[in-house]
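URGENT: need a sanity check before tomorrow's submission.

F., can you look over the Pyrroloquinoline-quinone synthase record below? I want to be sure the sequence and structure line up before it goes out.
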Amino acid sequence: MSLQTPLSSISDSNTSDSNISEKILQQPWTKEEFEANLRAQHRRYHHLHPFHQRMNAGQLNPEEVRRWVLNRFYYQQSIPLKDAAILSNCPERDIRREWISRIIDHDGRTGSEGGIEAWLKLGEAVGLEREKMLKGQAVLPGVRYAVDAYVNFCRTKPWIEAVASSLTELFGPDAIRDRLIALEKHYPWIDKAGFDYFRVRLKQAPQDASYALNLVLQRCQTVEMQQRAVEALAFKCDLLWSQLEAIERGETRPIIND
Ligand SMILES: O=C(O)c1cc(C(=O)O)c2c(n1)C(=O)C(=O)c1cc(C(=O)O)[nH]c1-2
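Structure tokens as predicted:
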């Protein structure tokens, strides 16, 4: 099924009578069509990026693996910030009660240290220093811009659109499963204890994705809202893609000794 009229053609249109009646007449997608349009964004997902494909084929050298882990840490650290932004924009207590668990999944609690700590362990397993990751000075500008755009999106857009942007997690588990197999097979120099992050994510992501999908399907009742949800997901796919573009290219800035 193809996507119906893109949102831009509605919002950019002038206000002639025919355009207005066209807008009024446009029926919302059925739940099934809406879900199919969301899931169709899989074709933009970052599992198709050449850098991930080379990773899965065992073709990355240790420096490239370290560059990926160090830069992706900036994404990992930013996830609780964007989830806190969603919480702060959502006036519904029931939803906040569910959503808050995402922050705890990443930030952890005493005795259950969470995803950020697990990613730091992955960093140590590939030979990165914890302090260097936490300082974040080596994060590439393209990665910083892409990830900050996600946090900013979730701060400034209606909360349901921010929820829709999290739906890349529908596609995440398959990609993470393939990556885990590839890392264990092709990168024997990495201590396997470092891969715990991915194992935990394989349990959390399907639950997160299912909750967010049902919410988006239920709350986006007009065609405009449905289209904005699909656009939010496309935006998120572009951000993940841009992140990998920057990581693949690597450091190109001049060396500044200050
Ligand atoms: O490794 C990946 O490919 C990958 C992708 C994504 C994603 O699709 O956004 C997430 C994660 N990992 C992840 O670990 C994670 O915690 C996560 C949270 C979110 C989100 O948008 O709320 N996406 C992702």
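My own read: Residues 79, 115, 166, 168-169, 172, 175-176, 201, 240 surround pyrroloquinoline quinone (CB under 6 Å). The chain has one domain: 35-248. If you see anything odd, call me.
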